[in-house]
Amino acid sequence: MPDDALTDQTKLIASGREKSDKSHMVNPAIERGSTVLFPDYKTFRDRKKPFFYGRMGTPTHRALEQTVCALEGAEHAMLTPSGLAAVIVPILALSKPGSHILVTDNAYDPVRGFCQNLAKQYGIETEFYDPCLNDGIEALIGETTTLILAESPGSLTFEVQDIPAMAKIAHKNKVNLLVDNSWAAGYFFKPLAHGADISIQAATKYPSGHSDAMSGFMATNDSKLADRIERTRRDLGYAISADEAALVHRGLRSMAARLPVHMSNGLALAQWLEQRQEVAKVLHPALSSHPQHDLWKRDFSGATGLFAVLLAPVREEQLERFFNRLELFGMGYSWGGYESLCIPTEPVYYRTACPWQEEGQLLRIHAGLEDVKDLQADLDRAFAAMTDGA
Ligand SMILES: *Cc1c(COP(=O)(O)O)cnc(C)c1O
Q1: Helix (H) or strand (E) holding 19
Q2: Ligand 1 centroid to residue 306 C-alpha, Å
Q3: Are 296 and 288 in contact (CB under 8 A)?
Q4: Is 238 a catalytic residue?
Q5: Rounded Cα–Cα distance for residues 304 and 188 (Å)
Q6: Is 51 exposed, middle or buried, given 0-12, 13-18 or 19+ CB atoms closer than 10 A?
Q7: pLDDT tens per residue, range 233-273
């Protein structure tokens, strides 16, 4: 393992590939498989083998877990087949019928779906809370509360939460604080260092980085929590293939080089969009106009390329002209790949604790790794098509 004095940029290169690796290749071997052969009867009986069945992972998975530990500053890291699974596993691990859980109102929408469907079906009661409550969350914690799920900045609307303040309240009340850290990619924000118990990532996004793999990370410093999470992951039968693990690991190697480009492209676009007459508001935590800009500045060391734009009022056919004119920005779900994306979003349908009040169409933009001048020109043409003969 690389030593702690190294920076994250170096750790992402040096972790998860032991010098003693028998292949002598730069990268850990991709060990696919189900069956592991035991050398003799006694070893089989004792199960004294670090690897004994494919679903529990292979050296390819362990190598990726080591790099995730280095990135998140964690003792333990576990992998899931999707980011959604990485949120669900700890919730199930820490709850039972009758449990009450607190989930931020701007959580990734399929997480809301899980809370309202499967979790409910198994007797777990979800209360959605205003993402700006911060230490006011204490008033919502009851006898049966087991955990708080935060996501900062949150999906679609990008509110930044005061994680250190929430962690203090969580610990005082003996509940666990889980943070969905996908936006910061584990790189620009360190939930565990800020007091959270579990940091979660959709590794599908920036860690994979090329829109060609799906997985999730769960990281913690608490070995008891790690045991419960790993137990639940196994009980659910969630396993990721060695090929997928190797792809995500490959993505992590270049992540520290990619993220600053996503950051500068995203910021340049956000600042440029803020000046456009077609735009009412830009929701980007690194802009001084963002309501929680100071929290972001205090706790984050940078920004990735994902943010939102609130358009000034437009008609549906104008929006259609805007989107159909875009060439470099693709229209599609997910983000964190090398390519730019732009989609219309509707937070009004996903809120229950604090309804979304803004008028006007919200767009979510992912700034990819293209030349930002080309991205601006693309948006410029789309705005022209939108307002043409408006
Ligand atoms: C995309 C996303 C997830 C889910 O990741 P998948 O790999 O698509 O399941 C979870 N949380 C956040 C914040 C996300 O953006």
Answers
A1: none
A2: 13
A3: no
A4: no
A5: 8
A6: middle
A7: 999 999 999 999 999 999 999 999 999 999 999 999 999 99
